[in-house]
Amino acid sequence: MTPGIAAFTLDSPHNRNALSVGLVNELTAHLNRAAEDPAVRAVLLTHTGDTFCSGLDLAEARAGTGLTAEQLVSLLRTVVETPKPVVARVTGHARAGGLGLLGACDIVVASPAASFAFTEVRIGLAPAVLSTSVLPRLDSRAASRYYLTGERFDSAEAARIGLITLAADDVDQALEPILAGLRSAAPGALAAAKHLTTTAARQFFGTHASELAALAARLGDSAEAKEGIASFLDRRFTREKES
């Protein structure tokens, strides 16, 4: 660990770092420990493989054992409300709920290898819960386009519309002054500054989280979503088998 920086790695290659119940519980526990550790100035969230996070674990969802809307709300709220800044290092793909995680982070730096998409509409869902962390940051016209079409976009576009902080050819080089600045900050002042910068997100959670969680649960129980999830998983299984 870099002094003052608690680094956590999403490392679940079998499901492309999807938000499974286990991964979310582990990440939440790590964030809570970092929040209580006086030696930690900030959290660095990174990943293994070519995917930062593929969204919800749809295999768990189909089995009825997956993350609930309330659990996802809780994770995103934890990232937003933890007094330590959370920085994401992204050198791979982010989809659906993974974009909610990025929206909750305070600073996000992504490489040209990263790509992004709100893919929910293609499987009978909508970007409901993740909107709690994403909509306070995102350009409204861009939200309309990418929510409605599910199109993929690159890191330069993600920075332009406010989803990430910076697109950089060399992510680690770009992160050096950011992490150095966080390490040199006084902890009380750092927590106060984060509280100021998350005002809109915290207000959005307070106003809309329950409504959006209910919408996500209702859509997840629909025949359209169940058919879409099953179709997606069957296609993925076929691709994996052929490769």
UniProtKB/TrEMBL annotation:
Superkingdom field: Bacteria
A Pfam family per the record: ECH_1
InterPro entries documented for this protein: ClpP/crotonase-like_dom_sf, Enoyl-CoA_hydra/iso, Enoyl-CoA_hydra_C, Enoyl-CoA_Hydratase/Isomerase
Family of this protein: Belongs to the enoyl-CoA hydratase/isomerase family.
Cited PANTHER family: ENOYL-COA HYDRATASE, POLYKETIDE BIOSYNTHESIS ENOYL-COA HYDRATASE PKSH-RELATED
NCBIfam families: PRK07827.1 (NF005879)
Name of the protein in its database record: Enoyl-CoA hydratase family protein
Lineage, top ranks: Bacteria, Bacillati, Actinomycetota, Actinomycetes, Pseudonocardiales
